[in-house]
């Protein structure tokens, strides 16, 4: 089958950062696995980090976590989908990825594709949707309807995860959402997706929040956490809570002690990596979001479609994500 992979770590612009490959097709699905014909995939920061740092050990590495496609075959323990079903999902880091014609994936982390979206539009959503949902509901404990009179500071509003945090927070909580954005186009995107207020993370965040009369009890940091840590600590309300999805440099959690602020990590791959008993919650939440999409309550976040996937276009997509200026998500269609 056709696939796009790499055999050595290179910068995105290197001609061998990705290669067009012909590799063996996956085996027939076993257990809870399904074999999916991939119709579209998107690129996330996790793809770029692994391309830069993880040297393949046994042949080419196939990345790709977001995908939308059609079920080709199902394993003997599958009960959620049958061949022909249209699905979307985010895969897992310790298995071969979606940058291929066919992929094996556990049905318990797969949702039904929103009927109102194309495969490309749907492929933009799973990883960021799961991260946003789990961060808000499972880590910060914000259940549906919660947060009246409270505020959420979202650091990095215009990126893929931030784009879903804003929408899910507006649809499922009563929080006032304050997103950070530093450019006119990213600020406009945040307003379009539901942010009540915009602050510039290049300036004094706490001072800007004070000027608009907001003291966030909750903080969701999606990027540049270490660079903004002092400002986050200053901004969060006493007895608040912070959820992080990255920190590319050390942070000092002891600074949270005077305010009794709790700190949480969110990694949407945790459930499938460890096979947790509640793995199927990712299936349920993707289905819930698909329902919201089909009823017009949440929109997809694809802003760039580069067309059919090739190694050259994959290199372009990785360069776009690494630029740090992406608004929304970049998608490629199936091989």
From TrEMBL:
Chief place where the protein resides: cytoplasm
Keywords of this entry: Acetylation, Cytoplasm, Metal-binding, NADP, Oxidoreductase, RNA-binding, Zinc
Residue ranges constituting the Enoyl reductase (ER) domain according to the UniProt record: 16-332
SMART domains: PKS_ER (SM00829)
GO molecular function: oxidoreductase activity; RNA binding; zinc ion binding
UniProt family annotation: Belongs to the zinc-containing alcohol dehydrogenase family. Quinone oxidoreductase subfamily.
Protein name (Swiss-Prot/TrEMBL): Zinc-type alcohol dehydrogenase-like protein
Species name: Neoroseomonas lacus
Upper taxonomic lineage: Bacteria, Pseudomonadati, Pseudomonadota, Alphaproteobacteria, Acetobacterales
């Amino acid at each position: 089958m056709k696939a796009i992979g790499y055999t050595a770590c290179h910068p995105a612009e290197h001609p061998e950062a990705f290669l067009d490959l012909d590799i063996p097709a996956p085996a027939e699905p076993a257990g809870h696995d399904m074999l999916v014909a991939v119709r579209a995939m998107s690129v996330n920061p996790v793809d770029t980090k692994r391309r830069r740092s993880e040297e393949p050990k046994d042949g080419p590495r196939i990345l790709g976590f977001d995908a939308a496609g059609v079920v080709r075959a199902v394993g003997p323990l599958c009960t959620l989908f049958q061949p022909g079903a249209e699905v979307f999902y985010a895969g897992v880091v310790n298995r071969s990825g979606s940058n291929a014609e066919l992929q094996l994936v556990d049905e318990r982390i797969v949702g039904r594709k929103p009927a109102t979206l194309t495969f490309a539009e749907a492929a933009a959503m799973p990883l960021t949707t799961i991260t946003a949902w789990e961060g808000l509901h499972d880590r910060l404990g914000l259940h549906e309807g919660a947060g009246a009179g409270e505020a959420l500071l979202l650091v990095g509003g215009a990126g893929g995860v931030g784009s879903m945090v804003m929408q899910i927070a507006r649809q499922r909580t009563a929080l006032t959402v304050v997103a950070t954005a530093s450019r006119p186009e990213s600020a406009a995107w945040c307003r379009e997706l539901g942010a009540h207020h915009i602050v510039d993370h290049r300036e004094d965040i706490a001072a800007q929040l004070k000027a608009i009369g907001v003291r966030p009890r909750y903080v969701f940091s999606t990027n540049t956490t270490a660079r903004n840590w002092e400002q986050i600590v200053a901004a969060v309300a006493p007895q608040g809570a912070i959820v992080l999805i990255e920190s590319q440099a050390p942070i000092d959690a002891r600074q949270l002690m005077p305010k009794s602020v709790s700190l949480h990590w969110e990694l949407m791959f945790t459930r499938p990596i460890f096979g947790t008993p509640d793995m199927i919650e990712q299936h349920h939440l993707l289905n819930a979001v698909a329902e919201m999409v089909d009823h017009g309550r949440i929109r997809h976040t694809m802003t760039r479609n580069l067309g059919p996937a090739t190694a050259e276009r994959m290199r372009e997509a990785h360069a776009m994500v690494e630029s740090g200026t992406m608004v929304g998500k970049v998608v490629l269609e199936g091989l």
